[in-house]
Amino acid sequence: MNKAIITVVGQDTVGIIARVCTYLSDRKVNVLDISQTIIDGFFNMMMIVDVANAETEFGAMVDDLEALGDEIGVRIRCQKEEIFTKMHRV
């Protein structure tokens, strides 16, 4: 399994989860876990995904997700699990 962490933060609007999940599904990326909250109108989501069978190269997927975030008015970041874990180690 080749895991990545996707974070989505921004003003809450209809369809954020649908747009991100549709993008991932179309590229054969499997969502392993998802957590989302909305606090005072602000949307926050964290996903763990398996990119082992992805039909898009990882770097291109990172760029595509950032562009999708710009399009829907949120900030989307995607990192390999190893990088995310090392960056957030206490």
Describe how the helices and strands are arranged.
Blueprint: E1 3-11, H1 16-26, E2 30-39, E3 42-50, H2 58-72, E4 74-80, H3 81-87
Antiparallel strand pairs: 1-3, 1-4, 2-3
Structure described in brief:
It is built from 3 helices and 4 strands. The chain has helices at 16-26, 58-72, 81-87; strands at 3-11, 30-39, 42-50, 74-80. The chain starts with a strand and ends with a helix.
Which structural traits does this protein have?
alpha+beta
From the spread of the alpha carbons, the general shape counts as globular
Helix- and strand-based class? alpha+beta
Mean pLDDT: 93
Strand order in the largest sheet: 2-3-1-4
Explain this structure:
The chain is α+β, with helices and mostly antiparallel strands and 90 residues long. Helices cover 37% and strands 39% of the residues. It contains three helices and four strands; from the N terminus they run βαββαβα. The chain has helices at 16-26, 58-72, 81-87; strands spanning 3-11, 30-39, 42-50, 74-80. A four-stranded antiparallel beta sheet has the order 2-3-1-4. The longest helix is centred in the C-terminal third of the chain and has 15 residues, at 58-72. The mean pLDDT is 93.
